[in-house]
Amino acid sequence: MRKVGRPPLYLYEEDRINIRREQNRTNQRNCRIKKRLIKHVKTITLPINFNKKYQDDIVHSFMNYGFNTLFTGTINLNHLEQDELNVMNKEVDKINQELQIELKQFTERRTTIQSLKEYTERYIQFLYSRNVIDRSLVFFEIGDNLNIHTHIILNSKTNYQDLKLILESGWLIGVSKTSRPIKNQEEKERVIRYGVKELKPTSSKSNEQKKIDNWFFIGEYN
Question: Domain 51-75+111-219, what architecture?
Answer without folding.
Answer: 2-Layer Sandwich (3.30)
